[in-house]
Structure formats: structure tokens, C-alpha cells
């Protein structure tokens, strides 16, 4: 056991949230901050190059590579859940599409008794954090640490056909879905800077790494929070086989993500007391909502064969890959500098819905033969193909994260409970019909040779439901497992996140 040290703040997890916290807390030079991260450095070509997330998707060390439990909602299949295990966390391996929450999401939080979280409260924070290269206005900010780049002008020409078809299907074109309203069809904005990924670490952590009052320890796997007299006083972590405890004069900040934050709380004796006791963990605080209220977006793609060349035709032949590789290395431009989710938007599954509940995705490439375990972003189909996809925005189904055992290195149990509320399935069926409506409109319709997946045999609601259960999967947006709220029995932290 290594000697104890004392910090003012100990932050657990250097992901999207942890990097921001490390920056903001260490801005006061009199405050000593320790940032602990289970993964290692983010100095990696596949992290830097935007399309490299196809490589980090199953990476054995940069990624926790979780599998959920078999889930009845998805026909008994488990889902693959990548999560970043590296400086920058999931922001180092994600698809970079920059989407703010809907105004009504935040107003809903405030209405539930969480002061300070309304859309009006959050807007100045959103504006302050971004450097929107399209410029600032009443909704958008410039000069902030997180660079936001519109893919407008860089996307495949088919994205324009998608937008025109969406407009013909009655979906308005929205030039800025992060502005006044999210609703409509749009080209996506991404968190990239000069053709490189701009992760939370790039935006917030690396610029302040030299601060003397900020210490970052990588490969430090936190095994539990130390609690004395009802207060968190430090953490215990393992690094290179050595167990170390560090103590805090002020606070432990847990930002290990929706899977690992509840896991660490439960390992520390904070959770459902009876479940913890059953695993041999002494409960120190009965908090039954820890790990519960798990929410995730579920999505799927429809795959089309196109009569016009798509990105498949560029990325499939070796000379095409060489060409875009050279283009990227020499200019930091081209398809390798973008997300594959080039366009999309937000729509209502039915006209009477109060706000958008379906997210759309247009990707100018396809992989019908993707092998699980290998995400073939550069190994596309042999024909010219593209994908239209959807995911839900406000699923009602709730799952949970639970401990498998008292071993801090055992992956936790993930039970998403997808589609356990039938309205979620109905909404996705309606969403799939919107996809087909867009595909039936010109100019897209004129380019489509055939719908390959799921294909014309899937037509009725029952057939579409079966297809969704058979093919849908996580779009990797897990949240809600340490819920905020005013009532301790129904939440984990209070509106000040304590
Ligand atoms: C493949 C993929 C694609 C995505 N695409 C998008 C997208 O296009 N747009 C979008 O908005 N969102 C996207 N997301 C979601 C988004 O990236 C996450 O919601 C967000 O990064 C979560 O931030 P976080 O700070 O909660 O957790 P994370 O960023 O995951 O950070 C948690 C950190 O804690 C560390 N940690 C965990 N356990 C321990 C421990 N015991 N000890 C020490 N450290 C620990 C982890 O290693 C990690 O670095 C995507 C996610 C994935 C995985």
C-alpha cells in the first residue's frame, strides 16, 4: 500500500465530464486537483483521425468493450457497448456528432425540482463552452474551448439528395439544429478542429496539463471511494498492481460514466443495501436508485443500393483508400476527416408529438457484411450503397447497472431492458416508416436500385417490429444511472450533484 497524499479535489474518470472538471477546478491555483483515469494516454493516430473511431470501436485497451446481458427487447440478444477507457473517455472514441439537448429536456429537469438546469440556465454555458466555426449568434458561441465544425460543404454529394428528399417528405431543412429549434433535416456538426478530433481532453485537459496544481494519473483503476462518518474522504486505486489511497480535504468527484460511476458507488457500499449484502459488500448508505433508471438510445439502419457511386466506391478499392489517405495526410480534409453520420435531423414520429422524438442518420456508405468484433468503416460493401438510420430520443424503457460480484475488475451487469415499454417499439416503427417515406422521395428515389436491408418483405407493423427486435442496437448514449433529483429516495444526487 503506497503512502497517502491529500488533494482538495479527487476526480475519478478523465472522460467528457472529468476533463472539464479538471480544467475548471484547477483554474484556482490554490486548489490541488488529482485526476485519476483507468485508461492510458490518448496520443493515438486512430483517436486523432476522425474516421479512426472505426478502429477504436473494438480496441482492446482504449475501450471497455462491454456486453449487455441478453435482452428480451432485442430478441434475447446482448448488445455491444463500447466505452472509452483512455484520457478523454468516450469523447476520444465517439462519432463526434455535436447535438445539444432539446430545450424541453432541460426545462423538464427544472420542472422536476432541479433549480439551475432550465434551458435558459444552460444556454450561456453551452455558448461559453463552444467555438462554433460557423460563428456566434443568440444561440451559438465562439471562442470557447470545444471546436464545433459544420460538415456543410464537405459531405458526400448524396447528402444533398437526402436533404432534398427529406424536404419533399415534409421535413423542413434546419440550417442549425443546435440553434433555436432542433427539428428538421440537417447536415451534422462535429467536434473536430482542423481535421482532427476535438475530444473533451483536447478542449479542456491538454491545454492545462502544465498547471502545477493539477496532477493526472493514468492507468489508475479506482476500486472504491473511502467514506468516513458519512463523508467521502478519499479513494483507493490500483496502478501497476500497487494499491494506493489518496485523501481529499474537500471533495471526491465521480465522473466515471453511466456504467462505471454506479459500479464504483456500489463497490464502495453505496447502493441497494440488500443487493450489496448479498454480494458480501458492507452497505454504508442505502441508496436504491444507484444504477437504476438506465436509459439508452436504440437505433437501426435501412440499407440501400444506389445507382450513383457512394463512399463505398471510394473506400473499397486500395487506390481509393490510398487517395483519401493522402488527401487526409496532406490537407486534413476529405472523408477521413468527417464522421460517417454526415447528415440526419430530428423529427416527430407522429404529428401530434409535442417535440422531435426520432433522430435521423444519413451515411453515404454501407456494410451489410459487417463482422461483429470488427467495425469495418474502411471495409465497405462491394456495391454502391448508403444507409438511412434512426434512433429514439426519449425512450420510456428503463434498465439498470448492477454488480456481478464484489470484484472491482469484473465488468458490471448491464440490463438495458430495451423496448420493455411498448410505446418505444411503436415509436421506432413510426420512425422506420419516416425513413421509407424519405427514401421514396426524389431525388433519392431515383438513385435507389433497391432496399437491401430489411427489404420489401418487411412491410406490416408486425414485420417491422420483428426486424427492429432482430437488428436494433445501442447507439451508445447510456445515461441516468446516478440520477439527479430533489428526493433522495428517487434519485442519487441532489440538484447540485452532491
Ligand atoms: C462509439 C460511441 C459513439 C458515440 N457517438 C456520439 C456522438 O456522435 N455524439 C454524442 O454526443 N455522443 C456520442 N457518444 C456518447 C458520448 O461519447 C458519451 O455520452 C460521453 O462521452 C459520456 O461522458 P462521461 O464523462 O459521462 O463518460 P466517459 O467519457 O465515458 O468517461 C468516463 C471515464 O471514466 C473512466 N473510468 C471508468 N471507470 C473507472 C475507474 N474505475 N477508475 C478510473 N477511471 C475510470 C473511463 O475510462 C473514462 O475515461 C458516443 C459514445 C460511444 C461509445
Would you kindly provide a written description of the structure presented here, covering whatever features stand out?
The structure is a single chain. With 498 residues, the protein is α+β, with helices and mostly antiparallel strands. It starts with a strand and ends in a 24-residue tail after the last strand. The longest helix has 18 residues, at 422-439. Among the domains are: 2-44 and 201-294 and 482-490, FAD/NAD(P)-binding domain, CATH 3.50.50; 151-189 and 298-394 and 419-471, Cholesterol Oxidase, domain 2, CATH 3.30.410.40. Helices cover 25% and strands 23% of the residues. Bound molecules: flavin-adenine dinucleotide (FAD). Flavin-adenine dinucleotide (FAD) binds at residues 12-18, 36-39, 57, 82-85, 89-91, 93-97, 99, 221-222, 255-258, 260, 264, 476-477. Flavin-adenine dinucleotide (FAD) binds next to α1, β12 and α8.
What topology does this entry show?
Blueprint: E1 2-12, H1 16-25, E2 33-36, H2 45-48, H3 53-56, E3 66-67, E4 80-81, H4 103-111, H5 119-129, E5 130-132, E6 146-150, H6 157-168, E7 184-187, E8 189-190, E9 192-193, E10 196-197, H7 200-205, E11 214-217, E12 221-228, E13 231-239, E14 242-254, H8 257-267, E15 270-271, H9 273-278, E16 285-286, E17 298-306, H10 311-315, H11 318-331, E18 343-347, E19 358-363, E20 385-392, E21 400-402, E22 413-415, H12 422-439, H13 444-447, E23 448-453, H14 461-471, E24 473-474
Parallel strand pairs: 1-2, 1-14, 2-11, 5-6, 15-16
Antiparallel strand pairs: 3-4, 6-8, 7-18, 9-10, 12-13, 13-14, 17-20, 17-23, 17-24, 18-19, 19-20, 21-22
Helix pairs in contact: 12-14
Bound molecules: flavin-adenine dinucleotide.
